[in-house]
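seq as requested:
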Amino acid sequence: MLARMDWLPLISTLAGAAIGIVATLIADRSRWRREDAKEVVRLRLEVYTQYTTVVKVLGETLRALREQEHPSDEERVAALREAFRESGIAVASERMWLIGPQPVVKASNSVFHCLRSICDGYIDGTAVGSPEDHARWEARGKAAAKMRKLMREDLGVGPLLERHSS
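struct tokens:
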């Protein structure tokens, strides 16, 4: 019986240490998961912000270029094409395709195609304020609103109570 009592403190110390190690590992794993989830949200916020900013600036640029006087139709077309190419929307779109969940990617792609349609319409001579122009901008506005809604849901942010200006 004396030998048994000598082992009991050692066994209970080892059991306590094992429990402490396992608890620490579980806590570390939980902390890592929380930090990883925060990093994913931070990265998506960065990508979403870049994309929505490019969309807004490109829209304003297209409208301004179409209303601007150009020496020739060829120069107007070249300016519109260059604005689209230089806007950064291709890079922002690729980042979205890599980072965003399927519903957000689909919505952002819809916005991209609306802007492409607006640009192509101006290249083809669509007049600013014409019914076709208005329809294209309206489609872009709806697509952008849907995209922002999905982005906010993905980020865990509540819905907006007022409409964003287009």
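The chain has a mean pLDDT of 88.
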